[in-house]
Structures are given as structure tokens and as C-alpha cells.
Amino acid sequence: MAPSSPSSSPPPARSSSSIFPSLISHMTPEQLSNSIMAELSRTRRKSGDDGAISTRQLQQTCAKLLLEFESQIRSEYDKILSDKLAEQYEAFVKYTQDHLRANKTNHSMSYVS
């Protein structure tokens, strides 16, 4: 069998109907680069090193930025989830009240012993 060649089809298009609209366009590559450079500058000032950055410094900086971004995503997700659950609960309460009202008007509430 011949080895399969990589697919030349384009990657799937990103959906424009994300539940995280503020995070989709949160950071452009330039903004990400600027954030990394700013964090590296802070790291250099702390260590007093003005030379080239080490791989370890770059890894730590990227890890820190990823954790911050993950925290933002989790926070927004929690808010969206909370809003959706509240919306679902309100719909359930309305349905239940409507159902009880409909049954109350359709049936007499007589108690026969």
C-alpha cells in the first residue's frame, strides 16, 4: 500500500456564530506578539538581563500568557453558561405556570370523598 498523501483541502472555515464573540477577535497575531514582547521586557527588567532571551524565559512567558487567556475564556464561558441556565430555568417556570393555569381552568377542583 502506498502511503497516503496529506490532504490538500483547505481547513474548515471558522464559524461566525461563536458563543465567545469577544474572544474570537480578542488578539490578533500582532497583539499576541506585542504581549509576549512586553512580558519578556518585564522578565528582563526583573532579572536584570539585557541580553538575548533564553528558551526557558520564552516558555515561561508563553505559558503565563496562555494561562491568562485560558482564565479569560473560562470566565466568559461561565458567564454564558450561567446566562443560558437562567434563561432555561425561566422558560421552565413559565411553561409550568402556563400548564398549571391551563389545567386549573379546564378541570374543576372538587374533592369528592
Question: Mind explaining what this structure looks like?
Answer:
The protein has 113 residues and is an all-alpha fold. It has helices at residues 21-24, 29-47, 55-106. The protein contains three helices and no strands. Helix 2 (29-47) packs across helix 3 (55-106).
Q: Keyphrases for this structure?
A:
rod-shaped, 113 residues, mainly alpha, disordered N terminus, 66% helix, 0% strand
Q: What is the 3D shape? A: rod-shaped
Helix content: 55-70%
User: What is the radius of gyration computed over CA atoms, rounded to a whole number of angstroms?
Assistant: 28 Å
CA(first)-CA(last) distance: 82 Å
H/E order of the elements?
Answer: HHH
Q: What share of the residues does DSSP label as strand, in percent?
A: under 5%
Average pLDDT:
76
How is this fold's topology laid out?
Elements: H1 21-24, H2 29-47, H3 55-106
Helix pairs in contact: 2-3
Brief overview:
The chain is mostly helical and 113 residues long. The protein has helices spanning 21-24, 29-47, 55-106. The longest helix has 52 residues, at 55-106.
